[in-house]
Amino acid sequence: MLGRLNNVRTALLGLIPVLKRPVDSSQYRSAMTSTSQQPEIATFAAGCFWGVEHIFLKHYPPAENKGILKTSVGYTGGKTTSVDPSYREVCAGTTDHAEAVRIEFDPTIVPYAELVEFFYRTHDPVAVNRQGPDVGSQYRSAIFTHGQEQRSIAERVTKEVQDKHFTPKGQLIATEIQDAGPWYDAEDYHQLYLFNNPSGYQCPTHYLHW
Q: Considering only CA atoms, which of 103, 104, 107, 112 is closest in space to residue 46?
């Protein structure tokens, strides 16, 4: 089943035309407004990275100075022996990498806790190794933390979301929280994919759940 779903998605990717004139990526990039503060990095996995990147940028567009400076999609959390994996290798499930989005943000505008809560709002965190029809460990829900402060915040927000939104329904969040490891950018055609291909595939779990 996993192989069939991955083959279908790969086939669909081949059928969707890439625009001859890609969007101007500069509109999805911004710079720090404060010279005394350094940007921080947040890394999230929540299923197909096309939709994860799209929903973050849709609600935090860099051009509107809402805190996100830029994003990239890629692979992380995999075997240390698997270096710079390809999309096909990750889809095969042999590298243990997750499809993820790496967000550079200005913490003076948007706190990390807000991004973690938004991450939970925009996918199904109780699903194990899947989101919607996308099945496999590469589609797992995970937060990759950069330092102890981020881990503490991620654990706190996870408990708050669990208590408020999932315990009343008898559900348990399955999201993994682990230290960030090596990051590998995905192939160029994956970057800003749904902005370049507005009719492209988007996982049905990627919407505001509350």
A: 103
Which residues, including other chains, have CB under 8 Å from residue 109's CB and lie 6 or more apart? 33, 65, 66, 67
DSSP symbol at 156: H
Structure token digits, residue 12: 């669909």
Task: Provide the Cα torsion 208, 103, 69, 71; round to 10°.
Answer: -90
The distance from CA 16 to its chain's CA centroid, rounded to whole angstroms, is 21
Q: Give me the amino acid identity at 29.
A: R
Angle between helices 49-59 and 112-121 (to 10 degrees): 120
The helix/strand/coil state of 177 is: strand
Could you list the active site residues?
48
Tell the residue number behind the tokens 């699903």, with chain if given. Answer: 127
- Each residue's pLDDT tens digit, 128-186: 999 999 999 999 999 999 999 999 999 999 999 999 999 999 999 999 999 999 999 99
Residues β-bridged to residue 71:
103
Pairing verdict, β 176-179 and 183-185: unpaired
Alpha-carbon span 177 to 42, nearest angstrom: 12
